[in-house]
Write a structure and sequence with these properties.
4 helices, flat
């Protein structure tokens, strides 16, 4: 897969197996944010979790460049986008519930 797009690979991973394994990024990063908030004794948002994970991948890439760092970094940016979109979707469904 070395010749394929890093962004396409990240997109396929985030929207495929990773989401199936770890739950929707909004739910997963919310759980992580709650745990980090206790550890850091400061409120952490799900978006901050995603951005901190990007920072981790940047740090690893600076130390030892590897394709995995780039793919995962792009994937974490994608998860931040997904969780923001899902938050809006859930809020809209609470404000304007669909009658079933």
């Amino acid at each position: 897969m070395e010749d394929d797009s890093i962004l396409l690979e990240a997109h396929n991973v985030v929207r495929g197996p990773r989401q199936d394994n770890y739950d929707h990024p909004l739910d997963n990063f919310t759980r992580i944010a709650k745990l980090w908030s206790v550890i850091l004794e400061k409120e952490v948002t799900p978006e901050q979790v995603g951005l901190c994970m990007v920072a981790l991948k940047i740090s690893r890439e600076i130390h030892r460049p590897q394709r995995d760092n780039l793919v995962d970094g792009a994937g974490y940016f994608e998860t931040v986008h997904l969780l923001k979109a899902e938050r809006i979707k859930r809020l809209a469904s609470e404000v304007f519930p669909l009658d079933e």
